[in-house]
């Protein structure tokens, strides 16, 4: 995971705000290399171990509702490069034409199996392919669709210095994002004007404090948060 030379960056990334974060990352090239090596090896190992589960989930998704097993969508990653993100499909076919590109809690477009997959973030597993190809990393800013990237400020663009990620500190802090958007009158505008800027503060701070071990801690915390969230819900259901 090597940084391009400053002169080789896209023109829209060459501003003073991005340069500040670029200089920080330049001092951490060895950690970036470790990050990429870890991504490749760990992604391959997880895929091998979980391949039987992949097959089972694929069959269940196909039985549950009409449509493809995989959801593919163009997102933006490092240096503003468009790529196709892979997820297990959790919504009905053509869901994007039936509503917003952000998902709210109890979204009617989400299938029965989709609710389960999203609850435990199992829909993210196919992104192992995106990690192996280098379009994504285990930890990094969540990839957005182009219409949201176009709304980035000059400072937010600095997040494109690194590949998009499956999880991040922002993802942990905004684990209940769907609920927040559900309570908003206009989900899209609320996301762009309120949620996205706040998430970007975490993403930019993560670049400032980037370290390989820090990424490992974020991955562990993500697993703990997902499991803990389930345990809390289970206790409420039992005791409620």
Quick synopsis:
The protein is mostly helical.
Strand and helix order: HHEEHHEHEHHHH
Q: What coarse outline follows from CA principal-axis ratios?
A: globular
Average pLDDT: 89
Our count of domains comes out at 1
Give a structural overview.
With 240 residues, this protein is mostly helical. It has nine helices and four strands. The strands form two sheets. It has a two-stranded antiparallel ribbon. A two-stranded parallel sheet has the order 3-4. Helix 2 runs antiparallel to helix 4.
Keywords summarizing the entry:
mainly alpha; 240 residues; two-stranded parallel ribbon; 9% strand; transmembrane helix; two-stranded antiparallel sheet; 9 helices; Bact_transf; transferase; 4 strands; transmembrane
